């Protein structure tokens, strides 16, 4: 009887310990109740002289700075930055790279704007769970968790040939005594097709073990009409036929019957301009609640189909491939740091082909047609 009682008590204590451990790995609010076994650390652009206010770091054309060179084990849990520059498309000219555990090649390589959820080099405010921007897009925040065992190096390169920038930044991280051996590394890869070629746009293609957790997808219309009839597809562990296949571009991003600008924690449209040539869109989808694991490989693609019109505005098709300008950032975790294989497109080729220029009192150089008479109101 005493043995049975002892066994019941032991099991009860074990269950309580399991519940406590589970709570420690729960939400951020739940974790606040428990003692944390790490040291909070920060790298920033703060002036070494605390009595001065010049807290930004200049990056000239073609220059690279190191935001942080960290000794592990550790976890980066927050990145904030804002940029001062006259370059209207600095979001595409600046590139963020991250190197894990002494690797000479980056596992993260993407334009700064796209990494923070806005394509096209645009500035706009939006909110989501891991990424947000404010101050009309000029203040950028990331809360992705980025663990490393030995070392982490994060750099920013200014690939503009004519504009310098000033950067203010925080890089907040946790210094741990140790991390689980099977912890996964953060990855992000930028790809573009300007214009899109026949066949699906490849978001991600990698080998190894890990889980896919999201994408930022940008489109600039090269033709009139709706671009979003293409489906999302996931080929897991060498599949020839995708085990996950969608029903339309806006459906994958949590919307329906076209796009409109909106923000949610895990999905949304951070930028939406419309259906005309030159109009820009950026949408995001985070698989935080529904990660997509893989053990050998994963290939993620998106069709680029929609309406096709003649020059006179007659619709020829509603489900045809379109030659729009497409770019994307895939975000995933993997068991080992994987180098980004695809060379990053040069900065001048990442800038959109159509730009909207606000102006007034333009001088028109066209000459009037013969027979027109000039009046005080123009030509009649």
Give a verbal description of the structure:
The chain is mainly beta and 380 residues long. The protein has a single domain (28-371), classed as Protein of unknown function DUF2961 (Jelly Rolls, Sandwich). 11% of the residues lie in helices and 41% in strands. It has helices at residues 2-24, 28-31, 90-93, 112-115, 249-252, 347-350, and strands spanning 38-44, 57-59, 64-71, 74-84, 94-100, 108-111, 126-127, 131-134, 139-142, 146-148, 151-158, 165-176, 185-193, 201-207, 210-220, 232-236, 244-245, 262-263, 267-272, 280-286, 292-294, 297-302, 305-309, 315-321, 325-334, 374-375, 378-379. Strand 19 and strand 20 form a beta hairpin. The longest helix is centred in the first third of the chain and has 23 residues, at 2-24. The chain starts with a helix and ends with a strand. The model is unreliable at 9-24 (pLDDT under 50).
Q: Looking at the chains present, what oligomeric state does this protein adopt?
A: single chain
Question: Helices and strands: which structural class?
Answer: mainly beta
Helix count from the secondary structure assignment: 6
Total beta strand runs? 27
Mean pLDDT level = 89
Give the overall shape.
Answer: globular
Report the portion of residues in β strands: 35-45%
Portion in helices: 10-25%
Number of individual domains: 1
The end-to-end distance, rounded to whole angstroms, is: 110 Å
CATH architecture: Sandwich
Determine and state the CATH class.
Answer: Mainly Beta
Question: Largest sheet, described in full?
Answer: 11 strands, mixed
CATH topology: Jelly Rolls
